[in-house]
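Z., the sequence and structure:
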Amino acid sequence: MLDSIKKMFSGSEEDYPASTTGKPDIPREKSAELYEKAKSYFPGGVNSPVRAFRSVYGTPLFIQKGDGCFVWDADGNQFIDFCGSWGPLILGHNNAKVREAVTAAMQNGMSFGAPTALENQLAALIIENNQYVEKIRFTSSGTEAVMSAIRLARGYTKRDKILKFEGCYHGHADSLLVKAGSGLVTFGETSSAGVPKSFADETIVVSLNDREAVERAFEQFKDQIAAVIIEGVPANNGLLIQDADYISFLREICTRNNSLLILDEVITGFRLGFEGAARHYNVRPDIVTYGKIIGGGLPVGMYGASAEIMGTVSPEGPVYQAGTLSGNPVAMAAGLAQLTELLRSGFYKDLNKKTQEFADSIQRFATARNYKFKVFSIGSIFWFAFTDKENIKTAEEIDPASMEKFKVMHRELLNRNIYLGPSGYEVGFVSAAHSKVELEKAKRAIFESLDIVFRGK
């Protein structure tokens, strides 16, 4: 993985130091017991590294159930949740319409490895309401969607090299688990054991928000770059909101060099609006990828493009991609229920306004107390950064030392029944299920936690 992403998982497990805040730590005995057992079954006791609590205090919380904007852990602690399964639960946990659709689909069977009408229905709903895709292909995860999009770009252009950006994470496919090399424009270097150097040699990595680096890459590797890939809004390593003219520049330079622009919207897709970051920036990608938000949080992904480009995919064309669980009927039913709700008039206006008011209130509090703290937000996504910078557009601008402050804040928020992802590099999400009452409670908890971080209270 990227070095910056690795920081989320580094370090060792720490017991809490003695509390000096007067706020007792939440009980974690059952979660701790489950974690000890898990360590004998799974590497590091988890099935995904980000679930480890190695960059914050204590051991992972084992979640028992979720409903609306709440989750409960194995010890019975109730939290207002801003993780939302890392974003796809835009309607909240256990949404009634999604749950009913899933239950109905399960009555007919849970997997066939054959076409179903539900695939057609969900595809039609997406294509009819998304101007950026004419044909799509369902996958089983966002990583698989991005991996397939890369293969498609290479097959369509008959070129091998991919240009990506430091600070953007696109899943754990080999050719994308690379970090920047030593020069301004260079081949990427492997950032995970098990990734052959030859794979990384086909990936060029440059800094975000650096036009010169992109231009030099196209000059140095003329007629070799199949595609440029960027997150819709980089949100796996902080929330690195790019200027619209920079995204337009990427579109223009790809067009000029007969390369494809891939917009990875696994996080931003259906979050900023039904057409995601593409619509937000008014930039047409050649290929777009989405993740589990299109399945109501169930394991699913999707990539799409023009009919011409998608015609390169097997069985129409020579680019092979397959999956027994692609278009799984349960996931399709969940997706139909969820995306239908997102098309409801005013859905995004209400959700984005609620998120903006939440972020603005927290920022006003921090500014009034001269805290070195910024809240960055876009759509219904937000990120807490311990910085005085007005804008952070690159991974290099994030101060690693600031994560010690997040570590304290994370503990204090848990003790006040607020759940965020266990890393200061991760973003948070507001859902339609977060009411004004819960957001007010969350704000008060955040205010108290910031006072402790900055004043030691």
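The domain at 96-342 is CATH 3.40.640.10 (Aspartate Aminotransferase; domain 2). The CA atoms of residues 171 and 410 lie 25 Å apart.

Let me know what you think.
H.
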